[in-house]
């Protein structure tokens, strides 16, 4: 069987860890079943950067190979183009986007360099699968070096419509680069439609009835493959001793109060201040919850050397401080905000001990926390998921209480509905959600895209 080679900016860790980030979690789950090579950035900065030695590690099934970045590459490629230009645009935040020609040049230079290093690791029958917005031009760079292997791509974040995306300088070139791949996977059908619209309206391409998109003489498959979690595995985590210890600690700390949980990297796309204001509105509109319901927000710091992230951290501290000062009483603090991270087992216990999972991003490619919250619940007494309509997960999880995160009145009302929901309705909704998550788990996600990739590549060779 051909080897799978996964490429992404973040690589691993392969063991249960406290690392936050949907991409790493999704890929660990997908790779641990089928094995393969995982190539990307080591997470370190050194003088030699991409020219430095290859760092390798292996477990029974998965091998990792990573290289460093130098400071200029980190600033231009990762902090600059990926996270100051692309991330805000792809999350509908043009107000936060910074466009600098040098960022884009360094981004392309780093992509070329990763392609060169990757090429030396490739075997002729490898299937290559590239991930996320850090590596959009990597496929083109590989093709320019005569790599003929099947190469697929998956975008973990949203793909906005052409009216929006064209605000990005050189967006045509970037989308054109995607046509070097054989298959492009998106989180939702909406993202696929936006991509097709861009190809047709901006690039003069056309869309086939079979889902193929043709432009610049290349026909590729563009399709939705919603990323899943290892549902069974995560449900098992919730039953481990570590999970139970954390759940019990939580129960003791709550002293009979009801808990709402939020778990997100500290990112402006996650709608955290809006979420806290919605909780404040709940306490205003339904005073019976004062002293009885609290919100725990776990928000590990992310990309904290970037101004926009520093700002959102300060805002979160200020909003939670304000609400706590306004409502706190002896023996009850409305909001517990923490920047620390937990192991996956500990998180599973915390989810299980929480009556409501509050997942209200302003924009999110998928949102795995929503899925983990459901997977960790006790089937006999499950909690309720309140989920933003702007998370990709909402497309697959209609049995959650779907909310508009910009409308605090509405979110407060839905939290109230969740708090009042009968056991029968909670079970009914949870059963439907869990069934979907079990069918569309991380293994299914990886298998579907890889199967399409092999088939599309064979068809391209035959044409
Ligand atoms: P994103 O990819 O934008 O970070 P997701 O919700 O898709 O968003 O994925 C986040 C992942 O990071 C989840 O698997 C979640 O469990 C994990 N995570 C988030 N916060 C923490 C934390 N404090 N400790 C450990 N893992 C975390
Ligand atoms: O899923 C979105 C994502 O950007 C991943 O690509 C990334 O690994 C994760 O969030 C965490 O961000 P970072 O890698 O910048 O720490």
Topology of this structure?
Blueprint: E1 4-8, H1 22-34, E2 36-45, E3 55-58, E4 62-69, H2 71-90, H3 101-119, E5 127-131, H4 138-144, E6 151-154, H5 162-165, H6 171-178, E7 183-186, H7 189-203, E8 206-207, E9 212-215, E10 218-224, H8 231-237, H9 241-254, E11 258-263, H10 272-285, E12 293-298, H11 307-327, E13 335-338, H12 344-352, E14 356-359, H13 368-375, E15 384-388, E16 401-403, H14 408-420, H15 423-439, H16 442-462
Helix pairs in contact: 1-16, 2-3, 3-4, 9-12, 10-11, 10-14
The site of adenosine-5'-diphosphate has 18 residues, from α1 and α13.
Fill in the keyword field for this structure.
463 residues, ten-stranded mixed β-sheet, binds adenosine-5'-diphosphate, Rossmann fold, 2 domains, 45% helix, six-stranded parallel β-sheet, globular, binds 6-O-phosphono-beta-D-fructofuranose, alpha/beta
Could you walk me through the main structural features you see in this protein, from its secondary elements to its overall organization?
It contains 16 helices and 16 strands. The protein is globular, with a radius of gyration of 22 Å. It folds into 2 domains: 4-228 and 442-462, 3-Layer(aba) Sandwich (Rossmann fold), CATH 3.40.50; 231-439, Rossmann fold, CATH 3.40.50. The strands form 2 sheets. The protein has a 10-stranded mixed beta sheet. Helices cover 45% and strands 17% of the residues. With 463 residues, it is α/β, with parallel strands linked by helices. 6-O-phosphono-beta-D-fructofuranose is lined by residues 9-10, 21-24, 132, 156-157, 265, 302-303. It comes from Breoghania corrubedonensis. This is Trehalose 6-phosphate synthase. Belongs to the glycosyltransferase 20 family.
């Amino acid at each position: 069987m051909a080897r799978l080679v996964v490429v992404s900016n973040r690589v691993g860790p392969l063991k249960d860890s406290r690392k936050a980030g949907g991409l790493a979690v999704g890929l660990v789950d997908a790779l641990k079943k089928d094995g393969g090579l995982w190539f990307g950035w080591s997470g370190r900065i050194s003088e030699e950067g991409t020219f430095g030695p290859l760092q390798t590690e292996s477990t029974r099934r998965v091998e990792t190979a990573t290289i460093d970045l130098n400071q200029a590459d980190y600033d231009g490629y990762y902090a600059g183009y990926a996270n100051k230009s692309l991330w805000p645009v792809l999350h509908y935040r043009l107000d936060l986007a910074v466009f600098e020609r040098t960022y884009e040049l360094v981004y392309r230079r780093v992509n070329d360099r990763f392609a060169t290093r990757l090429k030396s690791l490739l075997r002729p029958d490898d299937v290559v699968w590239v991930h996320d917005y850090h590596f959009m031009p990597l496929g083109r760079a590989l093709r320019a070096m005569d790599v003929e292997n099947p190469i697929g791509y998956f975008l973990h974040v949203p793909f906005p419509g052409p009216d929006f995306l064209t605000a990005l300088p050189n967006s045509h070139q970037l989308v054109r680069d995607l046509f070097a791949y054989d298959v492009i996977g998106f989180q939702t059908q909406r993202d696929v439609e936006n991509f097709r619209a861009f190809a047709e309206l901006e690039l003069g391409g056309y869309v086939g009835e079979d889902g193929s998109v043709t432009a610049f003489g290349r026909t590729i498959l563009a399709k939705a493959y919603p990323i899943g979690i290892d549902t069974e595995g995560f449900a098992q985590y919730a039953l481990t001793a570590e999970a139970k210890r954390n759940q019990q600690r939580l129960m003791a700390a709550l002293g009979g109060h009801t808990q709402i949980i939020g778990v997100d990297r500290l990112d402006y796309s996650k709608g955290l201040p809006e979420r806290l204001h919605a909780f404040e509105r709940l306490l205003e509109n339904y005073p019976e919850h004062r002293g009885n319901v609290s919100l725990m927000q776990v928000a590990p710091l992310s990309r904290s050397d970037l101004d926009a992230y520093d700002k959102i951290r300060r805002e979160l501290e200020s909003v939670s401080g304000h609400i706590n000062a306004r409502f706190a009483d002896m023996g009850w603090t409305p909001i517990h905000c923490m920047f620390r991270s937990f192991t996956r087992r500990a998180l599973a216990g915390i989810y299980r001990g929480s009556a409501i999972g509050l997942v209200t991003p302003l924009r999110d490619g998928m949102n795995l926390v929503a899925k983990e919250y459901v997977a960790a619940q006790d089937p006999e007494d499950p909690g309720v998921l309140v989920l933003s309509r702007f998370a990709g997960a909402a497309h697959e999880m209609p049995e959650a209480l779907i909310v508009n995160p910009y409308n605090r009145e509405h979110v407060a009302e839905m939290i109230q509905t969740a708090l009042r929901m009968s056991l029968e309705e909670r079970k009914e909704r949870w059963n439907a959600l869990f069934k979907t998550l079990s069918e569309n788990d991380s293994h299914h996600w990886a298998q579907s895209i890889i199967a399409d990739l092999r088939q599309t590549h064979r068809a391209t060779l035959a044409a």
